[in-house]
Amino acid sequence: MTPEIYRAPTLAAAVDALAERGPDGAPLAGGTWIMRAPLRSAAFKPAYVALSEISALKTIAVGDTSVAIGAGATHAALAQALAGVPGLEALATAAGSTANPAVRGMATVGGNLSAHDFAAADLVPALLALDAVVEIAGRGGEERMGIEAFLSRRADLGPGRLLTKILLKRSGVRSAHARLPLRKAGDYPVAIVSLAITLDAAGRITIARVAVGSVETVARRWTSLETALVGQALDPGTLARLAETHGADFTGRDGVEAPGWYRVSVLPALVRRAAASLSTAAA
Fold first, then answer.
1. Which residues are CB-contacts of 245 (< 8 A; sequence separation ≥ 6)?
2. Do residues 85 and 62 lie in contact, with contact meaning Cβ atoms separated by under 8 Å?
3. Could you report the per-residue pLDDT of 163-216, keeping only the tens digit for each?
4. How many CA atoms lie within 13 A of 225 on its CB side?
5. pLDDT digit string (tens) for 118-138?
6. What's the maximum distance between 2 C-alpha atoms anywhere in the chain?
7. CA 236, 239, 245 angle in degrees (round to 5)?
8. DSSP code for 74
9. Given a cut of 90, is residue 71 above it in pLDDT?
10. C-alpha dist (Å) from residue 252 to 99, 209, 247, 273
């Protein structure tokens, strides 16, 4: 049966349509994850609310102290908008390296975050490292929550709730994003590390946020490593060795593209790559 597709002309109309369709409906933006449903033995929804006509969802506003990203912005548009923006290198790299050019031109930021059964989403660890806040619209108004809270609640937000915006503060951090794709994994990385740090005048790390994606079913921060990095010099070898000592924090997921143990084993190398990127930028 062909699903019903309603093209919402406004955000309010989209929220109303989603609420009216209840669990039988879902938002449709780039559609790159939805179209792969048969490949993962998932059924299409009876109805979809298309968001492509809502221009407000595609806006990316880069200010001096903050950034607001519309959930309907594509990965390609995000990578272009953030190119050269200090502190947001991790997100720019994530948006510009995910999947392939065709997918980047279609896949949206909101879709990447909302796909709760997609473990290898590149944008999620980058946004975790950058301490993003998301905005959710519903008939009762707007609600904001941290990215970690959103990840834990996104599968149960209920009908009529729509991710509309991602908000970031420009706080003087330096950030980097490293991923490991394998040919047999197709477009998806088997492991991802995003790193955001601040340094003192002596070049020592004062604040560290490290996020890991694709290793477990949901991306999350590597809090024990964050603690260990504080006070360290930004030396790629040192950071990689510290990552090795905290690898037991993760239980890798097995998949057709890579076993769980391998996903965990490559994390120190990805930490090294991310740190090297930061070191080069600071030189």
1. 228
2. yes
3. 999 999 998 899 999 999 986 545 689 999 999 999 999 999 999 999 999 999
4. 30
5. 999 999 999 999 999 999 999
6. 64
7. 145
8. B
9. yes
10. 21, 20, 10, 20
Rounded to whole angstroms, the Cα distance separating 210 from 254 reads: 22
Nearest to 25 by CA among 61, 50, 60, 55: 50
Question: Where do the domains of the chain lie, and which CATH numbers do they carry?
Answer: 175-282 (3.30.390.50)
Residue 92's SS3 state is helix
- Residue pair 164/136 in contact (Cβ under 8 Å)? The answer is yes
Non-local CB neighbours of 131 within 8 Å, separated by 6+ positions: 146, 147, 168, 169, 196, 209
Q: Kindly report, residue by residue over 225-245, the tens digit of the pLDDT.
A: 999 999 999 999 999 999 999
Q: Are 11 and 164 in contact (CB under 8 A)?
A: yes
Phi, psi of 258 (to 5 degrees): -170, 145
